[in-house]
């Protein structure tokens, strides 16, 4: 599953965009200096998300929307179309066609 696909699934399961969840994390005191386990616990308790999805959002909280370009344009399991993740919801994502 691509990194973006993880974020899209989080949106499907929670009804919130990744950007909204990052803002909620901040309101809960979860910042880039927090532990990943804090995000795992919060997302499990509030949204019943598993560790993989929590770690994807944790990466965004810690590092912002940029990801390593090593998987961009590849054919591997974790391939992504861009080295920048779209955080504002699937409905508003620009077409890559």
General description of the model:
This protein is an all-alpha fold and 97 residues long. It has a domain at 3-68. It contains 4 helices and no strands. Helix 1 (3-14) packs across helix 4. It is globular, with a radius of gyration of 13 Å. The chain starts with a helix and ends in a 34-residue tail after the last helix. The mean pLDDT is 91. This is DUF4287 domain-containing protein. Residues 68-97 are annotated as: Disordered. It holds the Pfam family DUF4287.
Strand percentage lies at: under 5%
**SS field, number of helical segments:** 4
> Ends: how far apart?
20 Å
From the spread of the alpha carbons, the general shape counts as: globular
Point out poorly predicted stretches.
none
Please estimate the helix content. Answer: 40-55%
Report the major sheet: none
SSE order, one letter for each helix or strand:
HHHH
- Mean pLDDT reading: 91
Number of strands: 0
Cα radius of gyration in angstroms: 13 Å
| Secondary-structure-derived class | mainly alpha
